[in-house]
Design goal:
The structure is a homodimer. Chain A has about 300 residues and is an alpha/beta fold. The first copy, chain A, is about 25% helix and about 25% strand. The first copy, chain A, has eight helices and 14 strands. Chain A has helices at about 20-35, 80-85, 140-145, 175-180, 205-225, 275-280, 285-290, 295-300; strands spanning about 5-10, 40-45, 90-100, 105-110, 115-120, 155-160, 160-165, 185-190, 225-230, 235, 240, 245-250, 255-260, 265-270. In chain A, helix 5 (about 205-225) links the parallel strand 8 and strand 9. In chain A, helix 1 (about 20-35) runs parallel beside helix 2 (about 80-85) and helix 4 (about 175-180) packs parallel to helix 5 (about 205-225). Chain A is globular, with a radius of gyration of 19 Å. Chain A starts with a strand and ends in an 8-residue tail after the last helix. Chains A and B meet through strand 6, helix 4, helix 5, helix 7 and helix 8 of A and strand 6, helix 4, helix 5, helix 7 and helix 8 of B. Chains A, B: Keywords: Hydrolase. Chains A, B: This is N-carbamoyl-D-amino-acid hydrolase. Chains A, B: InterPro entries: Aliph_Amidase/BUP (IPR050345), C-N_Hydrolase (IPR003010), C-N_Hydrolase_sf (IPR036526). Chains A, B: One of its GO terms (molecular function) is hydrolase activity.
């Protein structure tokens, strides 16, 4: 057995007026609780340091730059890195990244037990839209504020296992898990902020949104025989509700832990990385069963083209 | 609305000693029941005409040729084609195909309302093994008796919609649905024979097998915003149990009908093909959101290669 005790650190809402200092204090409290429960790794949500700002339309995009981090770590988050190193706990969280040359990404990082950043991922599947859309019940302007990630779906060796990351909407796309599965991924860490109502279909509420969250994570785990840790920022941010439902899913696609609240809530579960081996060696032995000669459209065609 | 009334015609077991005549009579009874319930399309299982013969090891592969059909239709199945045409019902079923030039495939066909074959699919993801394996609780010799399909994952216009097919183990692979999704598929028809116990993991029984069946079909439907019709051959064939659990899944990934028995059982559900549009135009608008530049490994690499 290669056991990793994983803490999924769901956070409740972060209001627009709240600063990073408030958030980081809450994250530290979750980290201390995780340490008390013996966690080796703590996973926080997407855009963990701020409110989910892509719901706010700013005509001048640069007006959003205050939500972005220009370096990582920086002064605001240094207490997280120091505490994690002291606890000898690896850590992953998401944040808005502004690069020195002016690029904007929806990013997540992964550290080792010493607080060194060993992995960086930039969200590839940006949902939503780039311009103000009066048809929607609320705005979801990720395509306005971020560029699609440019780092692919890498994996890293950490804590004795092979880990990958994805962010929010990435989890709905089987390509996300498969590209990592083809690199032998054993655990995928995913943060998300998911509005409780579909902005384009008002009768699609939180129950269905939670169902799709579970379905996507469970299928990705099963079909690649890996652990999936999916962590929400949840609750009501300035009148805009987000689902909770953070999950730990085993390599059989079964949910082994699920958050019950829409607030700061810690799930801790012992994850045996060796439990990924059976699926990878049998039904999802890719080398034995995949037939890439018939998958060509997946990479050669972006949009759907119906037959004549 | 573009309504198709779909009949998922699960069949119970077919014993090794039973002839095609016995099976076809049962299939005709299900077809008549489907007609009485107003079905436009009836979907039968994988290898619908015989017992699931890949469980039987034959040293000389040619000894299995008696399970194969050398032409389609042939005398044994002509009553099905004639009755379907009389009922103006489209039809799909699976069978073992032996081509004039000696190739063996695990095949499914699709007809129009007049009994004309409009589509043929040959199973691509063959599970199991090619040689007798004393380690298994039972044999699963699909890699012995069949070649991988050579027709890709085509789709066809039929009954006013866009339809595709897959066979059994194909349904566990997201590539299957995605290649069809990229052709705008609105309904995927899948037959299966799934042993109730994992041959390599005796403690994996029918509950987990049914769970994986549901998970795979639901994820494929949701992630491509299409209907999935998954139809079992079920029950105890000569001492070897197969799961039932035939399903009709809507484009939101929700199960709208599920078989309760392991016997001949008909599920009939009205499927609105226009219900596929919302997902295809929003969250799974492939043209807007897919990033093929990061999917390269899916087609360039067959087996998993862990990082150094």
């Amino acid at each position: 057995m290669r056991m990793i005790n994983v803490a999924a650190a769901q956070t409740g809402p972060i209001q627009r007026a709240e600063g990073r200092d408030v958030v980081v204090r809450r994250m530290l409290a979750l980290m201390d609780e995780a340490k008390a429960k013996g966690a080796d790794l703590i996973v926080y949500p997407e855009l963990a340091l701020t409110t989910f700002f892509p719901r706010w339309y700013m005509e001048n995009r640069a007006d959003a730059d205050g939500w972005f981090e220009r370096e990582m770590p920086n002064d605001a988050v240094r207490p997280l890195f120091e505490r994690a190193a002291r606890h000898e706990m690896a850590m992953s969280f998401g944040y808005a990244e502004l690069t020195p040359d002016g690029h904007h990404f929806n990013t997540a990082i992964l550290t080792d037990r010493s607080g060194n950043i060993v992995g960086k991922y930039r969200k590839i599947h940006l949902p939503g839209h780039a311009e103000f859309d009066p048809e929607r019940t609320h705005q979801h302007l990720e395509k306005r504020y971020f560029e699609p990630g440019d780092l692919g779906f890498p994996v890293w060796r950490n804590l004795g296992g092979i880990m990958g990351m994805a962010v929010c909407n990435d989890r709905r796309w089987p390509e996300t898990y498969r590209v990592m599965g083809l690199q032998g991924v054993e655990m995928v860490l995913i943060g998300y902020n998911t509005p409780s109502v579909n902005a384009q279909k008002a009768d699609e509420g939180p129950e269905k949104r939670l169902f799709h969250n579970r379905l996507s994570a469970q299928a990705g785990a099963y079909q690649n025989s890996c652990w999936v840790i999916a962590v929400a920022k949840a609750g009501n941010e300035d009148g805009h509700p987000l689902i909770g439902g953070s999950l730990i899913v085993n390599p059989d696609g079964e949910i082994v832990a699920e958050a019950k609240t829409e607030d700061d809530e810690l799930l801790v579960h012992p994850c045996d990385l060796d439990a990924t081996a059976f699926g990878k060696q049998t039904i999802f032995n890719f080398a034995a069963h995949r037939r890439t000669e018939h998958y060509g459209l997946i990479t050669s065609r972006t949009g759907a083209i119906p037959p004549p």
